[in-house]
Amino acid sequence: MSSNYAKAAKLNHNGQSYTYYPFNAVAEKYDVARLPYSLRILLENLLRHGEEEFVSDADIEALANWQPKADPDKEIAFVPARVLLQDFTGVPAIVDLAAMRDAMKDLGREPEKINPLAPVELVIDHSVMVDQYGQADSFKKNTEIEMQRNKERYQFLRWGQKAFDNFRVVPPGTGIVHQVNLEYLARVVFNNDDNVLYPDTLVGTDSHTTMINGLGILGWGVGGIEAEAAMLGQPVSMLIPQVVGVRLKGAIPEGITATDLVLTVTEKLRKLGVVGKFVEFFGEGLSQLSLADRATIANMAPEYGATCGIFPVDEETLNYLRLTGRSDEQIELVKQYMQEMGLWHDPDDKEAEYSDILDVDLSELVPSLAGPKRPQDRIDLTSAKSAFDNLLDEHKAQQEQLIAQFEEEGGHTAVGHSEAAEQGEVKVNYRGEDFYLQHGDVVIAAITSCTNTSNPAVLMAAGLLARNASKLGLKTKPWVKTSLAPGSQVVTDYLEQAGLMDDLENLGFYLVGYGCTTCIGNAGPLPEPIGAAIKEGNLLVSSVLSGNRNFEGRIHQDVRANYLASPPLVVAYALAGSMHVDLYNDPLGQDKDGKDVFLKDIWPDTEEIQQAIQANLSADSFKSKYADVFKGDQDWQGLDAPSSNRYEWPDSTYVRKPPFFDGMAAKPEAVPAIEGARCLVKVGDSITTDHISPAGAIKPESPAGEYLQEQGIKPGDFNSYGSRRGNHEVMMRGTFANVRLKNQLAPGSEGSVTRYFPDDEQTSIYDAAMRYQQQGTPLVVLAGKEYGTGSSRDWAAKGPALLGVKAVIAEGYERIHRSNLVGMGILPLEFVDGDSADSLGLDGTEHFDIEAVSEQSRRIKVVAKREADNTTIEFEAKVRIDTPNEYQYYANGGILKFVLRKLAA
Fold it and tell me: What average pLDDT does the structure give for the chain?
């Protein structure tokens, strides 16, 4: 097939000739310059693949003729240049590839056909936990524990390095995937083996893959199953999106951090509504933002709901490439290629067309935090104390209601000793100090996460604030678990050069690891006296972290209020020790002379921060720390790993052969109707993938905990759900196991609880699902708005699929999770015309019949029959299989089966 638009051209650079695909032929008919930057990158992608079967000239014309206000309805194929993984999502992805090799053998084909075609890079960053803190050897001890716990997983990854081409692993203890990507892995412009130049693009198995958008690189998070398909050469199927422009103007006031900016942008874009849309930043305010600031804003695209949050490539991009040690040759090539392509940003360029525009005046920013359980719920720092007081009032009212309920039933309270609970404080002795732990106390203060630790301005600010506080004799409160977990080794390098590590350590912020830690739920255990006091008094305690996620039950199971804040505010709250302290008007403590010290007394000014950056951050540091980035230490190099092309599946509680391909036929059966289904879970709005498939601690009394103990694993060696994702037996039992999940089928309960019908018996969700499976009863989930927000967690679709869930009926979905459901053969349906489960009178006790879906289905009929009163509720639901390709995935029982059959054929 020949394209009228896919015309290659030559670019000469420093005596070398390169091939590239300019917009010239398209520009003869269409005004390409009016297109947003991100859509021009997609257009280049179509042109370069214009001679392949999955791209037509009609696709190219549809994109070139993009109408900003039109509802997306045109499907195109996107071929990312590379795939990025982290270990929590990467291990199950490689497990699936290993299982696909076995399935290829079973189908009589060559197992080696299962091999990544695009470069795949995996960074091990999610497995380190904050077991040790507040001591000089915390990093060493945590790293040793990490290697002991995860040996089987890491041996498996070492096997994958040998067995698969195009697959590289960055060993543990190096940094966070997104920061390593930004500082080292990113190319900006790709140059393949055939000397073809094209924009660096990617998909990643972590929702914060969007951080790389700050460098002008188009990429976003997908589920592991979609990433696996991309690895194996399957284009990413997508609708041409709407693009929202964010016009930045004004100047950033003194004392405002990049964190304050991103929390404000997140709040505003969530209110505007950008789910499934691209977001682009432009305007005169761009000049106010460093590349690190841009990356901070881009990082949190999942929090404001967008597919991406991209910035253009300009001189600031080149400055960052220079700072991070990229070669002059690469930097010059980036500029020449982007200019030739019309992808280079000049402040005098005409404004692109956008579907909508949001104006953000940087001069109006104020110090902010977000919480207590959603990143978009921004709070002015001046209002933080009163906001917490309101939260505490709600908590006390719920507590009194529970006490009254249990006393009325003649039982004991479920909220600890009623006297301690009523008083709101518990006396504690810890590390030789006596104190009262109270409602509102900050028990975790963590400088963590890719979002902020990639930004030298906020890290230097934290260090300088710590220095100023230490000089005055301020100390961290004894109940605060402090930690410093930066995203790369460069961070500690420049903090040490600036002499600020000593000051941070003086306040307890010792290095605990180079990884996600607290933000992913790896906060580690609270000290036993602190945890016991929280339970005894049913205390509403808090965490403050410089992360991007604070969903219920994610940070720590005993900590109900979690706040996102800048690194310097994390240090400030560690000093204050409580959310009851008004950081504007109340003292953080007293100096050596007993004089009150306020936040304004120790907050560093912008000029001081910039001077510290300029004096202590250089390209040499980046070159040094990334010189042997794939090598790893002796423990990593010494791991034994088989060298077979098919994995031998040893007896392991970490890595087991998944059942996804068991008994798979060469061709799929016809798509069936769903008949006589029962509701397994009924939930409200904003259910996150953490609710569906938690990543944190495994409780001993949970189905997953009981399984591990049956395998001879002691609770101290459980590790986390995230680290066990290579074992489907754990993950099935951990599905819907978040301790804060409120299943409306079991009112008043929290956690993995449901009712099993027709017996009306209350039991664990896993046990109920297994009993339904034995009877051959399909299952459904009923949900509200924004179902599946948060992490791009494929196990939030894999787990329900293995439990027997055939359909989800929700008021709305987050982008990645909807795609993951289709990718696992689960039917995503959406209530229409303002309907909801509650408005239709569905209480989850019904039998559900759902007609079979065809490729043409846009709406289908659902019939719910309730035995109790012999009523029938019929309603229409929108089929959220959004593209023809997605229908093929669904009809095959999932994207991996589709790809496997295609390769086998």
Answer: 93
Q: What pLDDT, in 10s, does the model give residues 809-853?
A: 999 998 889 999 999 999 999 999 899 999 999 999 999 999 999
Task: Round to whole Å and give the CA distance between 663 and 333.
Answer: 51
What are the tens digits of pLDDT across the range 161-192?
Answer: 999 999 999 999 999 999 999 999 999 999 99
Report the alpha-carbon distance of residue 567 to residue 106 in Å, rounded.
53
Which H/E stretch holds residue 622?
helix 619-625
In the block, tokens 């007081």 appear at 389
Question: In this structure, which long-range contacts are made by residues 704-712, counting pairs with CB atoms below 8 Å and at least 24 apart in sequence?
Answer: 704/730, 704/731, 704/733, 704/734, 704/737, 706/733, 707/733, 708/653, 711/653
User: Measured between alpha carbons, how far is 420 from 439 in angstroms, rounded to an integer?
Assistant: 11
Could you say which architecture CATH assigns to the domain 241-366? 3-Layer(aba) Sandwich (3.40)
Q: Spell out the CATH class of 674-694+734-904.
A: alpha beta
Distance CA 454, CA 447 (A): 11
From residue 176, give the alpha-carbon distance in Å to each of 187, 211, 445, 586: 18, 12, 19, 36
pTM of the entire predicted model: 0.88
Considering the four listed CATH numbers 3.40.30.10, 3.30.499.10, 3.40.50.80, 1.10.10.10, the one that applies to the domain covering 368-625 is 3.30.499.10
The reply to whether 80-237 and 368-625 are identical in fold is yes
Contacts of 867 (CB under 8 A, 6+ apart): 758, 845, 847
In order, the DSSP letters of 822-862 are HHTT-EEEEE-TT--TTTTT--S-SEEEEPPP-TT-SEEEE
Give domain limits for the chain: 9-66, 80-237, 241-366, 368-625, 674-694+734-904
pLDDT in tens, 222-241: 888 889 989 998 899 899 99
For the domain made up of 80-237, give the CATH fold: Aconitase; domain 3 (3.30.499)
Pairing state between β 201-204 and 82-86: parallel
Rounded Cα gap, residues 719 and 754, in angstroms = 26
